[in-house]
Amino acid sequence: LVSDELTSVVFDVTGIKPGCPVKNTFKLKEDKEELDVVFLLEKSSDTPTEVLTNGVLVAYPCLSLQGVITKDEKLKLTEHGTNQFKLSLPGSYEKQLSFPCKPDCDQNCEIPFVIHIGKDMCSELGVEVEQTITVLQDGASPDFETHSTVLGSGTVPFHSLPLGKPIEMTVPLGKEQSVNLYVKAEQIKRNLDVRLGFDLCQEEWQFLDKRKKIVSQTLSKALRLREDPSKDEVPVVAVLGSGGGMRALTSFYGSLLGLQQLNLLDAVIYLCGVSGSTWYAIMRFQAGCELSGFPGTWKL
Prior knowledge:
alpha+beta; 3 helices; 300 residues
């Protein structure tokens, strides 16, 4: 099966009004043909939900489900093979979590877990107890094979969990077996791990302000200027290293050493590399030396 893209077109949908069909004809330059497309914008019947957006990216409010799973007295685990709890929540970031559990009934098997999921996701928390046995294959083959058996399973409707209130429940697994759950669902209110924005973050701007002062002094000294350039006049200089193993490492080191000998190394703001170039960069970072402390010689 081969899929070849013949052409692509771009159309601005911001001018479409709800309930008013818009017909547009796209001219395909390759075959001198035309493509007629009718666009129709309709109001969704779904319940409005809260979203976080910067006009480009869209994120939904996230819930954190924290809890502890413990064995119930009725849960019988055999000593053959390995036993584990499996927690699954479709649509969550973790998807499925697995935790080993020993069959000793006197063991206080309290296992903490954390699951993250969208606030408006309608899903069920699945709980399973699985046993895995490793056996030697029949015949002359020395290989081993594993057999897994689900000893019991149960579900908990996620939407039934109240926000901000810890609850304790017993989840039936069938065959008169069960596990105990202590869970608490709450909305995450801290800053997102992925920042939504078109500009540099505040910490990056602070770094640039500090670094540009050093760059300004370096350029003024190297170029013999009458006065230090202002912050707006300081260029953003980056040194980029390519890949290529030891050749890239040597080339990257030589380039930085050359800049140091020209008294221009402190004019660099960003230092980037891939593959072999990062080998030298890692050594510099591990040594704890900044660019201003670059040595004249370096033993590889």
